[in-house]
Design goal:
Elements lengths: L2 H5 L5 E5 L4 H12 L3 E6 L2 H13 L3 E6 L5 H15 L4 E4 L14 H28 L3 E6 L12 H21 L4 E8 L5 H9 L4 H10 L9 H12 L10 E4 L6
Parallel strand pairs: 1-2, 1-4, 2-3, 4-5, 5-6, 6-7
Helix pairs in contact: 2-9, 4-5, 5-6
């Protein structure tokens, strides 16, 4: 059996949220290299169109749709469009997320709702409409982006910790409910990764970005922060036939930070 047969993603349709940058973009690029037609979803239309064009120019297959992942109507509509165009969804990577570095007292209700809606509600909405499409075609793989802070607490990030803990546990519930449809559901929990989100944290905390990134990796056994490609490789594993008997689990990719 060759590599392509082991991975089993040739000509599959993979839908990725938060796809215009960071972990989402790196995953789209890797899934494209593995043979998927990737569907990029993001609220940033300009960046999304550009990144999809770049994948296509490299010989891949990519389509972009603008999607507000906090909107029921937008999520329903985009899944209907994808089903109409491709007739299938084989992989769903629920990756969109935001963070606000504040404790409970300092949070506004609007900030709390934003983080919960983008990072957790979106998992519910996209999965709600994608799962029936997967089921009618014999199954698929859903990967949700959690966090190390979904498994342990963190400072000044109350809403983010709440959202990511929800992602970790709803992954288990979804795996139990939809295993009968041959749909595997897993969670990937990155440690600090060099993305626009992490760099934005430095701004929120009023810290020097370079120093913040360095300090985020120095205490890890591998002594560095992650790259988007590090996380994308984990998503590829969970999305592909390489993990054909893996469901309901959380894969921590954090350079040993939780250890």
């Amino acid at each position: 059996m060759n590599y392509e047969e082991l991975v089993g993603l040739r000509d599959k349709v993979a839908v990725v949220t938060g796809a215009a940058s960071g972990i989402g973009l790196a995953t789209c690029q890797l899934l494209s290299e593995a043979g998927c037609h990737v569907v990029l979803l993001d609220i940033n239309a300009e960046a999304g169109v550009q990144k999809a064009d770049e994948i296509n120019k490299l010989g891949g297959k990519a389509t972009f749709y603008t999607c507000d992942v906090t909107s029921n109507e937008a999520c329903k509509s985009v899944i209907e469009k994808i089903n109409s165009e491709f007739g299938r969804i084989d992989v769903l990577f629920n990756n969109a997320g935001v963070i606000r570095r504040k404790n409970i007292v300092d949070h506004s209700e609007e900030e709390w709702d934003l983080v919960i809606n983008v990072s957790l509600k979106s998992v519910f909405l996209l999965s709600k409409y994608a799962i029936p499409v997967m089921a009618k075609n014999g199954g698929g793989s859903i990967v949700n982006t959690g966090s190390g802070w979904g498994l342990k607490g963190g400072d000044d990030a109350a809403s983010y910790c709440a959202a990511k803990a929800g992602v970790v546990n709803v992954t288990k519930a979804m795996a139990i409910d939809h295993g009968k449809d041959n749909i595997r559901v897993n969670c990937i929990s990155p440690g600090d990764t060099d993305t626009p989100l992490l760099r934005g944290e430095a701004d929120q905390l009023k810290l020097n970005v370079d120093q913040f990134l360095k300090s985020s990796g120095v205490d890890r056994p591998l002594q560095r922060i992650g790259t988007p490609q590090d996380i994308a490789k984990g998503v590829l594993f969970l999305a592909s036939d390489l993990s054909s008997w893996v469901t309901g689990t959380t894969l921590v990719v954090d350079g040993g930070g939780l250890a």
